[in-house]
Every structure is written in C-alpha cells, then in structure tokens.
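Dear U.,

For the methods section draft, I wanted the exact inputs and outputs in one place so we can describe them consistently. I've listed the two proteins in the order they'll appear in the manuscript figures. Please don't edit the token lines directly; just add comments below if something needs changing.

First protein:
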Amino acid sequence: MTEIRLVVVDDHPVVVDGVRLLLRDDPAIRVVGGATDAASAVRLAARTSPHVILLDLRLPDAVASEMVAPLRQAAPGARIVVFTAYRDHAALRTTLDAGVDGCILKDASATDLVSAVRQAASGIQIFDPRVDDRAAPRMRSRLHETGLTQREYDVLRHAAAGRTNPEIAEQLGLTRHTVTGYLRNAMRKLNARNRIELITRAAKSGLL
C-alpha cells in the first residue's frame, strides 16, 4: 500500500483540521475528506474508498455503533477506528461490540496517531491502552485466553508500534528493567522466541 487514504468523521470541523495537521509530515497518509454527520460520512466513504475511517463516538444524527454497518457497506475495505475523547463513555462498549477495528483517544500524540492509522490500514486491531478495559469485552477475553496481564498487553502494544524499551518505559512510567520483564513474560505466554515473533503471534491472536 503506497498511500493510506483516511477519512475523519467528527461533528467538529476543527478535529478534521487537527488530524490533518498532526499527519502532515507523514507522506504515506492522506486525509481525503471529513464529514460532520452520518449521512455525509456514508457518501464520503463511498466516494473516496478510504483505507481507514476515524469515527467520532457521537454525531448529530447517529451514534458510532449505528454507523458501523452503513460505513462497511459504503467502503467494504475500510478499517473503522473509534476516535473519542472519552475513555470510559457508556456508548464505547456498544460501539466496540458493533465490530469496529480499534479505538484511539483524541489526545493521542502525532506519533501514536500515525502508528494507529498505519496499523489499522495493515489489518491490525488497535486499542488505546488507556481505554477502560470494561469497554472492550472482546479484548478482555483474548487477554484471558493468552494469560497476558493488562500491563503486559500495554507494553506489547507499544512494542508493536515500534517503540524501544526506553521509550516504552518513559511512556508508561516504568523502569527499563520492568519493561524487559513484561516483554519476556509475554514471549513466554505466547510461545515466542523474540520480539518480532511476539508481535506476529500477538497480531494473529487478535491482540493487536
């Protein structure tokens, strides 16, 4: 994929402008349009065939959970990622249950946003580690099946985003030694021999 086409659906036009600003230095991602309501979002998705759709939790004429099916019909190949300011909003669980491909919070850094869009476009499920895990029952189930703790998953997700151990430690407020320990635990639980194999196995297990 030489270019990732991105659509932003949010009832505040400034959000679309903000995303464009955050992503302007990445030549592989192009914001092909923004929509402020459900009807225009579906038309835009059909017209632009985006690879990724950033979808606000609530629109003037619909909630995100109601948007998943029509957006998938309009753009079958698009990955739908909830883009919200609320990590524990009551509507978030319903939206995740509707089958979106991930969730990222609006205060994400440019680096995190770029990483999320890239991963979503490549078929990886992405969930901001700060999202209340009560809102993500599917992810809870997968963690339970693998035996990973929430903290091990947080470290794994950052590793999958390409961060080094020192960067992960700074991001999560841990020591480098602790990060190394979490990664070793994750490797053991997923039967991986190294970091690359760990990320590959995690992706295949639906953890990323």
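Second protein (the one for the lower panel):
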Amino acid sequence: MSLYAVENVGDAIEATKSFLLPFDRSRWLRLALIVLFVGGGLGLQSPANFGTSSSDFADTEAGPSDEGFEPTEVPSDLPDPIPTDDVWLLIGVVIGVVILLGLVLGFIGSVMEFVFVESLSRDAVQIRRYFGRHWRAGLRLFGFRLGVSLLGFAAVGLVGAAIAVVFFGGVPTDPIPAQILGAILVLVPVMIVVFTLVALVNGFTTAFVVPVMLAEDRTVLGGWRRFWPTLRGQLKQFGVYVVVAFVLTIAISLIAATAMGIGAVSLLIPFALVGGIAFVAGGAHLSLAVGAVLVVLALLYVALLVALLALVQVPLQTFLRLYTLLILGDTNEEFDVIADLRADVRQ
C-alpha cells in the first residue's frame, strides 16, 4: 500500500518549483504578504504609599530628647505617586489593545488561508480579489479556531480546578510539596493531551477542511462533515501524514531560522555602522538627536527583518501547503483543487 505522505514529498518540491519559477517579483511579493499572515506574565507591583502624613510619626516613641527637634521638611517638588486605579486602568487598556490586535490579525490570517489556497489552485495570486470573495468564510474559520482554542483552555481549567479540590481540599494556605508535585504530575499530561488535540483539530482544519470549503462552498462544520468520511476511512494515511508533516515542519523551521540568522547578521552590519557614525558625530553621548536617529534605524531594521522573514517563508510555506493539497487529492479526488498542477508534475 502506497503512503501518500511519503510519496508526495518529492512531488511537492516539483510543484513548488513549477509554481514559483521562473521568478516573478510581483508574485513573490504578494505571496510574501500572504504567508506573513498564515505563517499563526506580567508581574506588576503596586506603587508604594508615599502619602503618609507627619502625624503618623508623631506618636512613635517620642521622648524628652525630641524637645526642640525640627522635622526635616519633605521637598515639595517630589512627583505625586501614580494612583493604583490609574495603573490598573492603563494595564487594562494595554491588554485590551493587545487582544484587539490579536483578534484582527487572527481574522486576517484566517481569510488569507483561503487566499493562499485559491492562489495555488488558480496559479494566480490576487490578494484583494480573493480576500473580498472569502472574508465571510475566513470569519467562520476564525470563529472556529477561536472556539476550539477556548474549549481547550476551558477543559484544562476545569481539570485543574478538580485537581486542586482533590489534592488540596479547597484553597490551601500552605500546601505541602507532595501535594503540589502530585497536582503537577496529573495536570501536565492532561494539558499535553488537550493541547495536542486542539493543535490536531486546527491543523487538519487548515490543511484539509479549508480546501474542501473552497472547493464545495461549505461552512467549517459542513467542510468537516464532508471531510470526515475520508479521514475516518484512511486513518493510516493521515496518521503517517501527521508524523511526516511534523518532521518536515521541524526541518523547515531550522532552514528558516538559519536563513534568518544569516540575514539578520548581514543586515545588522550596515545599520550598526550608520548608528556608530551617528553616535560619534553627536559627540559620543546619547543626545535627543542621536537617540532619534537610533530609533529610526532600529525601526527600519525590524521592518527589513519582517520583510526578509516573509520572503524566506514563501517557498517553505508554499511547499507545505502544496504537500497537504497533494495528499488531500490523493485520498479523495473530489477534493483536488490543484488538479492541473498535479498533472504537470506527474506527467
């Protein structure tokens, strides 16, 4: 029995070459933008109370020697302490902005999944057109991903609460180490199992259900219902896929990390030289002008790193996505969204 996950590695490499070569700058830049989106404890201490009045010290062990003592006046130019309520309000605003930004990026990334697959399917990369066509499906995918992830966290939270009751009998004031160790030994395997299941569901949804949704204009749950008989009927094929895909992901991550490391060092050299010249020209001290130049250089350096990351990811993410699409078409030809490309590499 042939194993599609093993056989399609070579075909995916050839399909990637066929899709990306000859080099087209416009196509690569558009794909870089797509893969940039699909690629997926704050300890604060309350401020000390500096507002203690002088009367609080008047009653502390005053003796005869205190007569004629003149208390030191507290300088009036000390800054007032930041109210605790304002600190927590600021924290809440920051957390809210981060969550909102994460939700927006998550939505865009979900839509880009459909943009990516359709680009591969049609051999034409059109971000604006495909985004407008699939934003509703992307919203459904985003909601599904968010729901599955929240269910995973909720399951771990419930198990953790049950373990706390069993091991501690409520909320302990001074739990012994044995209780803590026992709770950890039970909770960690549960967390591993739950988050592995969440990763598998989200991973299979992205790799296989999204193409089904695209091919047959289905919802996420409708896509899963359509894909489920294929998954259940070929568990061996998809089981091997999980193992091979895991190995490929590690290999690709190492390639990307190596390329990014070389690129980051190469880019850093000219920026460091320019920054050093600016520092020396500014009198070898961090003035406002020198600081502004360094900040601009740092922002430009980070922007170039992000662009480099996106370009490095183009062939890697294209290979991974074509690999899963080849497997999906082999397991059920009704779901084959890259039939023409498959025929080209297998002729």
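Candidate sentences for the figure legend, describing the second protein: Confidence is low (pLDDT under 50) at residues 40-66. The first helix runs from residue 4 to 20.

Thanks,
Y.
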